[in-house]
């Protein structure tokens, strides 16, 4: 007898664990209850007008309707190298050390495909951006080694946990915690990458430009032996443009490009040009006024929500980076999440970032000021459990 359709076993990844919450939110919404959504890290602010213009202008370029390349447009790669020199003081060869991506998410998945054989160990931080564990490990049939990010260590891992793995994902400034990496940690991580040539360190700096006190440093300032990821998404409120880039070790960038060549042809040229326009607008390490303004808005909102949540008695992890507020409400966050939803506030349960996030909650300030203020008001009567 013929069998029915079954997807490949590698897709057997547990679904998003909070379907029930989404169902309740949809029910409340259709009953007309006002909902304040602080659960999605998708900027509400506009991208700088000049990058939109750059994308629009590129549509008239005859090159734009032909295939782009898997490695990325050469002129855009040169913009990346120039920006890297000005922003971090690191020299990169645009031909061998830069690859333009269809967003960092795509790049992480392709790097895993390029590096991991079935059964290889992949170190995944917990709490952490779920793509590391999913596309970065399970989809390529790796074996996951969870590495704990402990609040008592500022959500930095003990690197002794990673010996012998093939691929290590780390991300600072960090989603979901907002933690940043001090120089001593970056030095330690660079030493690890240098001392174990079989290890690939994938260092995700999607939030590199969202630090409110001092600029984040690149891991490439400490070693050339790693792959580092950057994204236009959070730099420029442009998640829909789907552009990012990977930089670093030529052998690993070449492997990433090989994987991409088999699968995709790079992001559309207009969005690559938008990325170049943003990078070219820096003066040395300094971003354009539009980015400084955006940063100030997120900083103000984050401060406001942090104080509102701390005043409930929750243990807020104080950080000066990212647009996330990360706080502990008890040993299990779900009662708090459910009650917040009943008050109209949608938050992200920490356990969505792995078991290490249990008891914690993430709120994103990527919503207009009035929404954040209304959410703070709606949460006023709540207490940690
Ligand atoms: C840590 C981290 N890396 C990467 C991404 C995705 O970046 P992109 O939009 O470039 O795919 C996100 C998005 O939330 C993120 O939080």
Q: Which structural class matches the secondary elements?
A: alpha/beta
CATH topology of the largest domain: Aspartate Aminotransferase, domain 2
Main sheet: strand order: 2-8-7-6-5-3-4
Q: What ions, cofactors and ligands are bound? A: pyridoxal-5'-phosphate
Q: How much β-strand is present in the residues? A: 5-15%
Average pLDDT value?
96
Task: Count all strands and give the number.
Answer: 13
SSE string, helices as H and strands as E: HEHHEHEEEHEEHEHHHEEHEEEH
Helical percentage: 25-40%
Number of domains: 2
CATH architecture of the largest domain: 3-Layer(aba) Sandwich
CATH superfamily of the largest domain: Type I PLP-dependent aspartate aminotransferase-like (Major domain)
Highest CATH level, the class of the largest domain:
Alpha Beta
The major β-sheet equals: 7 strands, mixed
Low-confidence stretches: none
Which value, in Å, is the CA radius of gyration?
Answer: 21 Å
For the termini, the CA-CA separation is 55 Å
Question: How many distinct helices?
Answer: 11
Shape estimate: globular
Describe the structure.
The mean pLDDT is 96. The longest helix has 22 residues, at 289-310. The protein contains 11 helices and 13 strands. Helix content is 35%, strand content 14%. Helix 3 packs parallel to helix 8. It has 385 residues and is of the alpha/beta class. The strands form 3 sheets. Strands 2-8-7-6-5-3-4 form a 7-stranded mixed sheet, sandwiched between helices. A 4-stranded antiparallel sheet has the order 9-10-13-12, covered by helices on one side. The protein folds into 2 domains: 16-46 and 289-378, Alpha-Beta Complex (Aspartate Aminotransferase, domain 1), CATH 3.90.1150.10; 49-280, Aspartate Aminotransferase, domain 2. A hairpin with a 6-residue loop joins strand 9 and strand 10 (324-328). The structure holds pyridoxal-5'-phosphate. Pyridoxal-5'-phosphate is lined by residues 41, 103-105, 129, 171, 175, 204, 206, 231, 233, 239, 244.
